[in-house]
């Protein structure tokens, strides 16, 4: 009899050492660079109907983050170690970016506007020191520095938006909140196979809030109109969808037909006033499908500049606008901004992010001392004759562990994935 081939699932295809998720993230980052260059250079808005590439690319980051960070949780022994890894991935490069903006970009803009650096450090409540301190906790509380950037196309006068050096950094706070929420779910045991349905209920609840916001905008604006609620219905929902695709990886089929239908659903969702009601689940599936099915799997695995592109492209483009590079046309402005952003992103990876990742296994000495050393047997080991060859002792097996090893449920709970992939650092 001819054997029916098994349908591919995420679990059977996902290899943490061999996938295209880094390629997808890098592509999304470059779309952000192009989108911001178009907007910050004053060349208009890249938006077709309700399709906004800048918004959609950020959504893709949160889907991949939910998928890979959930995988990271499954491979980490403790919640403390998990949060330490997440801290190293976000905070060091973020802090250095704040320092570069306040110590390099803003002074250059001040020098361009005033001809000298006199008064820059003591320029009031929105000075450079205040900018670093106010924003160091990831929550962006101050966007300009000493009135800079000034005279740039973005934001337009009368738009109601404040001056901003880096309009991309505000999503980092939401990213880290998702990390914390996932750690809480893990500590409560909700990520286990027997309880992961609760994550489905949580995602469904957030989706219902989004539906209410669409059907009853008056009520929703009063009850769910805050930035926290709006961020939850966008970022938290997408993160949960990415996490669910990993948690149910054994049951989610990787189908080209489903990918095409997902693409059509995302495109069709732009015809309604609230596209996320329709687009979020198929969009999440499409992003992960691309990450597991596209070729060029080695791109971005050894030098991950995605994070650096995301956090540095906006401020560098603002600085180029201060110096009027955009007046030479879109091509000159984009090439200049893309080149500078690439250099900054590469430097961030080589000198900040990669060294920080090497501290993943670091443990404080006081913690090691508090753990204590393992007990040492008081019985000396028997000496072997020089003419006898030492044979390795057979490992002792606990009867209870032997029963666990042959229990049928233990085989089903094994994680089919391998070692940590560099893209899982996101």
What does this structure look like?
- This protein has 426 residues and is an all-alpha fold.
- It has helices spanning 10-13, 21-40, 53-75, 79-114, 128-135, 170-187, 197-215, 217-223, 227-247, 256-269, 276-293, 306-322, 330-357, 365-371, 399-406, 408-412.
- The longest helix is centred in the N-terminal third of the chain and has 36 residues, at 79-114.
- The two termini are 46 Å apart.
Summarize the structure.
This protein is 59% helix and 0% strand. By secondary structure, the chain is mainly alpha-helical.
Helix/strand class: mainly alpha
- Arithmetic mean pLDDT: 84
Stretches with pLDDT under 50, minimum 5 residues: 373-426
Biggest sheet, in brief? Answer: none
Number of strands: 0
Strand and helix order: HHHHHHHHHHHHHHHH
Backbone shape: globular
Q: What is the radius of gyration?
A: 26 Å
Q: Strand fraction band?
A: under 5%
Distance N to C terminus: 46 Å
Helix content: 55-70%
- Count the helices. How many? 16
């Amino acid at each position: 009899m001819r054997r029916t081939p098994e349908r591919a699932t995420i679990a059977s295809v996902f290899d943490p050492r061999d996938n295209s998720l880094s390629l997808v993230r890098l592509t999304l980052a470059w779309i952000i660079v192009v989108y911001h260059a178009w907007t910050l250079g004053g060349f208009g808005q890249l938006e077709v109907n309700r399709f906004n590439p800048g918004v959609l690319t950020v959504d893709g980051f949160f889907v991949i983050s939910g998928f890979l960070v959930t995988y990271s949780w499954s491979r980490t022994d403790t919640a403390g170690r998990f949060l330490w890894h997440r801290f190293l991935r976000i905070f060091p490069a973020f802090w250095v970016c704040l320092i570069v903006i306040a110590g390099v970009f803003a002074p250059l803009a001040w020098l361009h506007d005033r001809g000298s650096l006199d008064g820059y450090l003591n320029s009031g409540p929105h000075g450079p020191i205040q900018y670093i301190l106010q924003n160091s906790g990831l929550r962006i509380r101050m966007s300009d520095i000493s009135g800079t950037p000034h005279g740039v196309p973005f934001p337009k006068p009368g738009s109601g938006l404040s001056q901003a050096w880096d309009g991309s950094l505000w999503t980092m706070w939401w990213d880290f909140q998702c990390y914390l929420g996932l750690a809480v779910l893990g500590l409560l045991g909700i990520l286990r196979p027997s309880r992961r349905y609760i994550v489905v209920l949580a995602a469904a609840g957030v989706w219902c809030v989004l539906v209410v916001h669409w059907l009853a905008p008056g009520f929703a604006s009063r009850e769910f109109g805050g930035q926290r609620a709006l961020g939850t219905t966008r970022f938290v929902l997408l993160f949960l969808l990415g996490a669910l695709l990993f948690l149910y990886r054994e049951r989610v089929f990787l189908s080209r037909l489903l990918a095409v239908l997902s693409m059509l659903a995302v495109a069709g969702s732009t015809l309604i006033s609230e596209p996320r009601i329709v687009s979020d689940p198929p969009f999440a599936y499409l992003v992960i499908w691309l990450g597991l099915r596209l070729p060029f799997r080695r791109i971005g695995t050894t030098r991950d500049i995605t994070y650096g592109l995301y956090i540095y492209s906006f401020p560098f483009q603002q600085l180029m606008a201060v110096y009027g590079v955009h007046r030479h046309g879109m091509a000159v402005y984009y090439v200049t901004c893309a080149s500078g952003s690439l250099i900054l992103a590469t430097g961030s990876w080589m000198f900040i992010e990669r060294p920080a990742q090497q501290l993943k296994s670091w443990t404080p000495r006081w913690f090691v001392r508090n753990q204590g050393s393992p007990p040492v047997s008081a019985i000396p080991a028997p000496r072997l004759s020089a003419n006898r060859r030492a044979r390795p002792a057979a490992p002792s097996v606990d009867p209870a562990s032997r029963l666990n090893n042959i229990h049928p449920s233990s085989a089903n709970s094994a994680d089919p994935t391998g070692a940590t992939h560099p893209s899982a650092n996101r």
